[in-house]
Design brief:
Elements lengths: L4 H9 L2 E3 L6 E4 L6 E11 L8 E6 L7 E8 L6 E9 L5 E2 L12 E2 L5 E4 L19 E2 L7 H12 L18
Antiparallel strand pairs: 1-3, 2-3, 3-4, 4-5, 5-6, 6-9, 7-8, 9-10
Length: about 180
Amino acid sequence: MPIAFEIADRIFREEKQLLRPFRWRSVESKNMNEQRRCLECRVDVAGGVPRGVQFRITVYPGSLARATFQLECDLPAGRTHVPLYRLELGPRRGHMNKLYGTGDLPGLILAAGETHEHLFYDSLRSDKSLRASAVEQARRIETPPADFPTALALVCSRNNIINGSDIPNPGDQGRLL
């Protein structure tokens, strides 16, 4: 059963606080043979802690200018995560939007390295239900962030997260040879 629009909309719009502990951990990529740093935390939404709402950050090796920030929630009948918002900072691959939606979103092509964001509102069906991949459509950011702290501040502003500045720096992302 998909998540209802009203629930997704409320989670996205309400004031949020990220819940401690904030711990970065190393995660090995399954197909790229690289160590990533990842932080996951639960989210207080308007004074309550709904089951399955998470904030996730992944930082990739070699630079703090390549990261993914995501607000997500579980589907009601399982543990499959549905992203409501994603920002891709300096992504390794480009992105091509599907051919639906309004304005300049249908078919928009974003180059590798072009920072962009995905909002679930842009991927809704005509009846306002969420698609299986709720962030298929991406949009350009008028003034894209150039580094991790600026991207984190932008993500927190867009998602109404009040304590994002409490997240510690992920540490060195260099590669040992």
